[in-house]
Amino acid sequence: MATNRTFTMIKPDATQENHIGGILSMIEAGGFRIVALKKTLLTAERAGEFYAVHKERPFYGDLVKYMSSGPIVAAILEKDNAVADFRTLIGATNPAQAEEGTIRKKYAKSIEANAVHGSDSDENAQIEGNFFFGSEEQF
Ligand code: IDP
C-alpha cells in the first residue's frame, strides 16, 4: 500500500548554485508539505552508505565523490501518493530526457549532477528519511 511520505535531497550542484529556494518552491507548489528539512554535508563514508544499493554500478565511485563534494539539503515530504508523484515532479534521471515543468528539466546539469534525489519506493522513503532525521525531527 502506498504511504504518503517520500524523501528528497537537493544535491551539491543545485545547493551550491543557490537553487534551494527555487526547488523548495516547486516542491510546495506541487502540493507537498515539508515534514523535515536540513542543510548538511555528507562525508564520503555516509554518501557511500546512502547509495550502497548502487555499489556494483560503474558510476558508484563518482556518485559518492559528487554527493560528498558540498552541502546538500535533505527533506521528508508528505502528499497522497508521495513517492510516485514526486518522481513525476522531478523528471527523468537524465535531464536530457526530463519533461518540461520538472525540477530536473529546470535545474539539472547532467545525468550525475541532476539537482535532486527522490526515493523510488515507500520502503526506501522510510529508510532514507530515517537516515537523516530522528522521529523527533519529523512533523
Ligand atoms: P534516480 O536518482 O533517478 O532514481 P538512479 O538510477 O537511482 O536514478 O541513480 C542514482 C543517482 O546516480 C542518479 O540520480 C544520478 O545522480 C547518478 N547516476 C545514475 N546514472 C548515472 C550514470 O549513468 N552516470 C553517472 N551518474 C549516474
TrEMBL record:
SMART domains: NDK (SM00562)
Major localization class: cytoplasm
An annotated Gene Ontology molecular function: ATP binding
Chemical reaction(s) catalysed: a ribonucleoside 5'-diphosphate + ATP = a ribonucleoside 5'-triphosphate + ADP; a 2'-deoxyribonucleoside 5'-diphosphate + ATP = a 2'-deoxyribonucleoside 5'-triphosphate + ADP
HAMAP family, per the entry: NDP_kinase (MF_00451)
InterPro entries (alphabetical): NDK-like_dom, NDK-like_dom_sf, Nucleoside_diP_kinase
Active site: H117
Pfam families named among the record's database cross-references: NDK
CDD domains hit by this protein: NDPk_I
EC number annotated for this UniProt entry: 2.7.4.6
Origin superkingdom: Bacteria
The name this protein goes by in its record: Nucleoside diphosphate kinase
Function: Major role in the synthesis of nucleoside triphosphates other than ATP. The ATP gamma phosphate is transferred to the NDP beta phosphate via a ping-pong mechanism, using a phosphorylated active-site intermediate.
Subcellular location: Cytoplasm
Alphabetical keyword list: ATP-binding, Cytoplasm, Kinase, Magnesium, Metal-binding, Nucleotide metabolism, Nucleotide-binding, Phosphoprotein, Transferase
Gene Ontology biological-process entries: CTP biosynthetic process; GTP biosynthetic process; UTP biosynthetic process
Record text on subunit structure and interactions: Homotetramer.
Cofactors named for this entry: Mg(2+)
Nucleoside diphosphate kinase-like domain sequence ranges: 3-137
Species, as recorded: Hymenobacter gummosus
Binding site for ATP: K11, F59, R87, T93, R104, N114
Protein family per UniProt: Belongs to the NDK family.
Gene3D superfamilies assigned: Nucleoside diphosphate kinase-like domain
